[in-house]
Specification:
Chain A is 74% helix and 0% strand. The first copy, chain A, is mainly alpha-helical. Chain A binds a DNA duplex (30 and 30 nucleotides) through helix 1 and helix 3.
DNA sequence: AGCTAACGTGACGGGGGCGTCAACTTCGAT
DNA sequence: ATCGAAGTTGACGCCCCCGTCACGTTAGCT
């Protein structure tokens, strides 16, 4: 009846349960904060029994890692890819910012997760994953310096400043009733186009 | 023997106990994160009994609020005051940044508290107190716009970007063995002097 | 249809936190 | 020196969480 040649029921249930746990965990972490959330808080937002949780994850930390890892990887990859085609500084900045803001807008739930648990993210992944891939951004900046798009300054500082400013602006943007990505992108692009050039 | 005309012993003990609790709480919040910290975790880092805690604070949230409130108030006041004397954009920026970075350097323990519990701070004080007084910064920016130091753009966005970038740079700076305030101040000042001017 | 390995279930023992309170100690006033 | 109020103590009852495991159910193979 329903659709295609899916895997067996066993496998489908497994996927569904895993997804249910991840979804419930995200909600719980956003609502209660990672530290105050218990495995029971997660399971309760699910139709499953408490024992089942442990068939999928060893503890709540593993769920948190799975949640953050996946998103961070995707975000870093996509902004990195977007910047590849840039030939001017404005393009480099604008393309990266646009992808970043659009990702956040498309997956607000995960954004809330990071926002509410920024300290935990930082403590757990020692990389300051707040910007989800600041190191990759720094690499991109170094490449841009190499090809003359940017003055030769500390790329890590540039990356930190950009990530911090961008994250904070995203918070503001998503608080609005009608988030305006173009406005945010334009602001960031002009701010950093002017600012980074001034460093030289 | 020891010094001046202090208040009675009763009063002195009270102050000492309160201070001990605040100190212990700060350590616990940094180490375990706010959510995972229990009142017992706080008391245990103290020579006091568990019941005594409740003579000073109703619960751990009250301690956290006391900790953050005090620092945020002081930081906002001092940066605000520093900026009052500025007559150029570079001065306005440089003075503010310097005070901010020096405060963080002087009270690293509280900085760690905010860094580790940024999400909680945001959730508890709905103001994004990550920058400890972004609203006040926005006010200062509006004043600067009024006196022609800055182009007339959304002061909230400017303030968010500045606070975010600055906080993230502070994290980097304090990770260094020999934190260089002047370097950080110079970087921020040039970045935003160039960037904010470009908005016009 | 019959069988079995895989999986879901929820009760259980052990651990620990919460906020209280009756008993005790100590300050400081008389 | 005496005494009462202020403050400290830690054990207590209640509650909830943790991770496990013996038991039931079911998918999917033959």
């Amino acid at each position: 009846m329903s659709g295609a040649a899916e895997a067996g029921k066993r496998e489908r249930t497994k996927q569904a349960n895993r997804a249910a746990i991840l979804h419930a965990a995200r909600d719980a972490f956003v609502e209660l904060g990672y530290g105050a959330t218990t495995v029971r808080d997660i399971v309760r937002r699910t139709a499953l029994a408490s024992g089942t949780f442990y068939n999928y994850f060893p503890d709540k930390e593993a769920v948190f890692r799975a949640l953050v890892d996946e998103t961070a990887r995707a975000a870093a990859e996509r902004t990195h890819h977007a910047r590849r085609s840039a030939t001017t500084l404005e393009e480099f900045l604008g393309l990266g910012f646009r992808v970043y803001f659009e990702l956040l807008l498309a997956d607000r739930a995960t954004f809330e997760l990071v926002r509410r648990n920024a300290g935990t993210v930082r403590a757990m992944f020692d990389e300051p994953a707040i910007g989800a891939g600041v190191d990759l951004l720094a690499d991109d900046l170094r490449a841009a310096i190499g090809s003359g798009l940017l003055p030769d300054h500390d790329a890590r500082m540039m990356a930190s400043a950009m990530a911090g400013a961008t994250f904070e602006l995203a918070v503001r943007m998503l608080e609005d009733d009608a988030p305006d990505v173009e406005r945010a992108v334009g602001f960031c692009t002009r701010l950093f186009a002017g600012g980074l050039a001034r460093l030289g």
